Amino acid sequence: MSVPASTVRAERVRMGRPRTPINTYGRMTVALQTPGRWRARTRYRFDDGTLRQVERFGETRAKAELNLRKALVTIKASAAVEVRREMRMSALADRFLASKSNLAPRSIDTYRQTIEHLIKPNIGELAISEATTERLQRFVSRIQLENGVGAAKSCRAVLSGMMGLAARSDAVRGNPVRDLAPLSRKTKGATAVPLERLPELIAKVRADAGLQRLDIADVIEFLIGTGCRVGR
Q1: Is residue 232 scored above 50 in pLDDT?
Q2: CATH for the stretch 81-183
């Protein structure tokens, strides 16, 4: 009994293309996207067996390829390390960042900046088991005080992903970030000018050459006289 030629060719192709092993990647391609912006791309086979595209960018072909190779080294190194309670938060952050390699480059850069500039310098040496809700709350509150609510929200988002990864690996019982206090901006209302100071204010407005030149002095007097409040 003869075997169809098409079947033989298909079998040869199948046998000639072995499956990409876990934690390895295939052929790397580099292409120019726009002037001064190169993209290096490959497909990496992760721990779950799926092949996902990983890409990095650079000002030159060489820099784009170098950035991709660095990312692949980080991914492989993090995949080889089991998440345990004794692991440092800095190492957990690297593993979390590697797990997000399929996101847009801008999102990855935002995560990386938050990790390198805020999380690692402040709590990177803590063990995962030491990253309690109380400690993380003090850290996020300090970041909000020193760097603003936007930076604090970024830290909280990254920490939630990190500790979620630890929880899924049974390194912690639950994600302690879930119990952190909500973050909100404190808005300060307008302060009314005392009535006895209005004549002084109007005189300064009329004497201000800049306001007169821009025709704003009359508008200010109108607002003072009518009590009108302009909404944003």
Answers
A1: no
A2: 1.10.150.130
